[in-house]
Structures are given as C-alpha cells and as structure tokens.
Amino acid sequence: MADSSNNHPKTLNFNVGVLGHVDSGKTSLARALSSTASTAAFDKNPQSRERGITLDLGFSSFNVDLPEQLREDPGGHGYDNLQFTLVDCPGHASLIRTIIGGAQIIDLMMLVVDVVKGIQTQTAECLLIGELTCPRMVVILNKTDLLPPNKRQTAIDKMTKRLHKTLENTRFKDCPVIALSAKPGGPEAPETDEPHGVPELIELLKSQTYLPHRDPGGALLMAVDHCFSIRGQGTVMTGTILQGALAVNDTVEIPALKVTKKVKSVQMFRRPVAGAMQGDRVGVCVTQFDPKLLERGVVCTPGSLHTLHAALISVRKIGYFKGSLATRAKFHITVGHETVMARVTFFGLPPGETHQTSTTEPQLPTSDPHASEPDLRPLDTPFSFDREYFHQDEYVIGQREAGGAGQDPEQWALLEFERPVTCPTLCLVIGSKLDTDIHANACRLAFQGRLLEGFEEKSYSETTLPRLRIYKTKHKEGQVERVTDDYTVIGRNLFKKETNLQLFVGLKVTLSTGEAGVIEGGFGQSGKFKIRVPEGLSLETKQLLSSSAKKRVKGGAKREPAKEDDAKTDSQPICINLRFKRYVFDPHKKLVQI
C-alpha cells in the first residue's frame, strides 16, 4: 500500500469527459454523480445559469474504492482509492472549441444522449472529438423518465441497437450503453426526486477504468480554467496538468503574461499536497498577480512553450467533413488550448514519389462503404526542410477501392495564424469550419494533424518560409511569329507586356515542330521575345514559317485573296512550349527548368 505518512490516502485521478448535445442533461448527470464540486464546476457563468446550459468546462469529482482490476494491476499498487474527475464539456455548437480544449485531458468519455431525440449533429461531432482524443467511451441514454412506462424498455432497446449501429465503424465499437434518468422531471423538478440508475452507472464506470499512462517527466504543461486571488496568500489557478509535474517552490511561467511565478502551495480537491503530476486536477497558489489577466490559458516550465506565428503540420481530412479543403482558405485551428483563425496552404510529395515510410502499419477498418472511419496511420508524418514538396490547390483525396477502403496520400499544411498561439510541439491540431450554420446537419471538423515545426519569428515569411522547398509547375504556351535566320525565331503570346523577361532568360523551350530552343531575351516592348535554336530550324519549319509570313503579307493587301494552303498553315501556327517550376516561397522568384 501507499506510504500514507502525510495522513492522506493516495488517490488515483481518472478524468471522465461528459460530452453530448445541448440539453441532453450532462450537467444534471455530473451533479448527480458528484460529491465534491471544484471551483470551476457547474456553470459559474450567469448567462448559462439563466438558460440551464453549460458554457465553460465545469469540473467536479467523486471518490470510490479502488476497483478490483486496478488493485490487481502491478502499477495500481500504492493507490488507496479512485477519484473520478468529471470534465463537463459544453454542448453548444458554437463552443466546440471548448470541447476540444477539454477533450485533450480525458481518459474516458461519457457520451450523453437524449433517449427521445437520439444522435444529433452535435452528438456526432462529440463522437468525432472522442475518436481523435480518447481511447474509451460509455454511452448514456438519459431522460428515460420521459418515456411512457409501458413502452420504456422497448424504446431503450431500440435506441441502444441504433447507437451500436452508428458506432460499429468507430474505435468505440461494442462500447457499453446504459439507460438512466439523471434529473427525473427535468430542470424544474424538485431536488427531492431521486435520480434513477446512477449507482449502476458508477459501477459501470469503475469497470471501465484502467491505469492511465501518467508521465511526470518532461516539461510542465498545465491547462488553467479558472483564476482567483486570496488576499494575503497569492493568486490561485485551477486546472489540469497535461504533461510533466509540479511541486511547491517550483518556478512556473505564464506565457500569456510573459511572467514567471513561484509555487507557494498546491491543493487537490481542497487537500494540500506537496506536488502533482500529469492527469491531476489541481489548484496552484502562486505569488500575487491580477487574476483577471488569466481566466483561461496555460502554465508551463519556464521557456518550454513556444509562441508561434505560423506552423507546419501533418494533415489528414476528417471523413465526415463534406466540404473541400482549399489552399488559401481560412479555418479555425485548435492547437494546444487555443482556437485561432489561420490561412492554410496544403502540400504533398512530388508526383510519382513514393510515400515516406511510417513506423507502424495502419490497420484500417473496411466495413464502411463511404470510408469515413478514422485513418489509423500515425499522424506525426516526418517533414524535412531538405526535400522538395509539391504545392496543392487543395487537399488530395486518395483513390477508394471497391470495398471503400483506401488512404489519402501523405500531406502537410502550412498554417499562418491571425494572432500568435502558445503551444507545445507535436500537439494535436484540429481544423474546423465553425462558422458553418449550426443547424445545418453537417460536421464542421475538417481536418486533424500534428504540429511538426513552429515558426516563432514574426518575420517568418522572410526568415523561414524561403527554406520551404514547395514548388508549383507551370506550362506556358506561345506562338512563333516569324523567323529572323536559320537559328533564331521571334515568339509572341507567351508573356504579358509587363512580365520581367529577365527571369526567363536561359530557359529551354520546345517548338511544336520538334526543335529545342533557348529564350535569349525580349524583343521590342510588347512582350515578344527572341529564341535561339542551337541545332538550327528544319527545312519543313522554315517552309511553314515562310508560307505563313507570305500569307500575312497577302492578308494585309486589300482585295487580294489569300491562297487556301497559306490559310491552312496559319490556322496551325508553330507553338512554343515552356515548362518550369517555381518555388512558392522563393523571394527571388527564380524559375527552374523541368
């Protein structure tokens, strides 16, 4: 057993996210389950109280005896009891960013579904966030008291069957479904009405617990959700430790305020402790600062977080998203604990190049004919400044085989943030279109990825982007206007009048008659140019050009009809083809021959 010399039993903290559609009864459920409500719990927002809808991540907890499977787990020795910390995530469609913020610290998800309404758009989005961030789930069919008693069990069975069908192509296939009523009679009912089915839910939750991987190593990162001051003691920040550990007397940094503070005391659900680690829900008292400056945000080991103006990420489209992912489009990007608008540029491997090998082979489910199940390949696809990448006008969808299986090619994206964001490297990134109509029955989560490289300099477009070797291929076509000698022709319609022809000098071109030439420079002021043909023009080409020249002369003389064969040669002018590539971020706009 744990060393209990500090007179406090050793508690394992297990974070349970309570997600679900607006008004599905999540807060009532959390309240029914909880014995200790922490500071942020249950809608401190007055606007939320008026409507009975949760607006911020509420936290509350309850303790139970350590379940049998954890006692038998070699890593479970030393713990006396289990604390369930309930993270009540808001169901508002417009506040999906808060849900994502909460989902990054969740060990088990409770998806609350209104038994009468079933799966709704928001429920599907919650499910998706769960798939991206959480290994296990329990589904709760709430509000069973609204079903007529004689038809209740039939309705519950029907909805359970439907849910299992919905979940069969997700990572939560065969997850447990339990029916209950957290607040019989609804929000207005007297508190005396006892919830139904809650003890059974607690037993179910206990059976679903596992020893979460908690790593005290590495830099501290704590997500703060509430901040207040205690006169004479300091400022208290409550939140959850996402990585690392902290202890009394440590120095921590608040990146948003650009200050460091000393930890004076640490509490876990109102009990003083010497320290805390990843996964723990804590109150940390530090030397005084104005709490209004940090209602939500992050605290970290000094110097460990980076404030980024732009980033490179691996990217994968979310199958349920119906829109296209276009370069230059703006998306809401949730990264770390922030959501910010960013302009996105997609790029991939050059055409014909094979994929970079991933460390693990994906095991893709194949039962979904629409292939909207998650692609299980690792997201941290390597990126290198040393190799070339191909610029894409939009995200490329892979070929789907007849059975629906298939993968999108490996792709990356450059994110250029509208304001700087503070986040750890390799963190999960989610791109959404949160401005989509809430009532439209469509998923607004568009893509996911991992942050691979961050650009901290404000002047990244001058300092770092030129190192990005992302290119576009170009094909220009013009016509030969006339020949000046056996080795030189004058071309037209390849460039605009204002084009800087110096950029193109020395590039090779091919004529539609087969000759290869080199652009020597401009000719006159109207965008015409001179081409040197080192091997000389063939006899047929010279004949073609001389006959079309004659035709132009005759065409210019009034009343003299052009000969039929001249008209024919001029209707098929000799074309000049120029192929080159240009690096998108090259400040010199240099062109490279293909």
Automatic annotation (TrEMBL):
* Listed PROSITE patterns: G_TR_2
Gene3D superfamilies, per this entry?
Answer: P-loop containing nucleotide triphosphate hydrolases, Translation factors
For this UniProt record, give its keywords in alphabetical order, as a comma-separated list.
Cytoplasm, GTP-binding, Hydrolase, Methylation, Nucleotide-binding, Nucleus, Phosphoprotein, Protein biosynthesis
Where located? Answer: Cytoplasm; Nucleus
**Which cellular components does GO assign to this protein?**
cytoplasm; nucleus
Where are the residues of the annotated region Disordered?
351-375, 550-569
Pfam families the record matches: eEFSec_4th (PF21131), euk_SelB_III (PF21208), GTP_EFTU (PF00009), GTP_EFTU_D2 (PF03144)
Q: Which cofactor does it need?
A: Mg(2+); Mn(2+)
A single GO molecular function term of this UniProt record: GTP binding
Q: Which reaction does it catalyse?
A: GTP + H2O = GDP + phosphate + H(+)
Does the record carry Membrane as a key word? no
Q: Name one GO biological process term.
A: selenocysteine incorporation
Tr-type G domain: which residues?
11-213
Task: Name the residue ranges with Basic and acidic residues bias.
Answer: 557-569
PANTHER family with a match to the protein in the record:
ELONGATION FACTOR TU-RELATED, SELENOCYSTEINE-SPECIFIC ELONGATION FACTOR
Q: What does this protein do?
A: Translation factor required for the incorporation of the rare amino acid selenocysteine encoded by UGA codons. Replaces the eRF1-eRF3-GTP ternary complex for the insertion of selenocysteine directed by the UGA codon. Insertion of selenocysteine at UGA codons is mediated by SECISBP2 and EEFSEC: SECISBP2 (1) specifically binds the SECIS sequence once the 80S ribosome encounters an in-frame UGA codon and (2) contacts the RPS27A/eS31 of the 40S ribosome before ribosome stalling.
Any idea what this protein is called? Answer: Selenocysteine-specific elongation factor
The organism is Salvelinus namaycush (Lake trout)
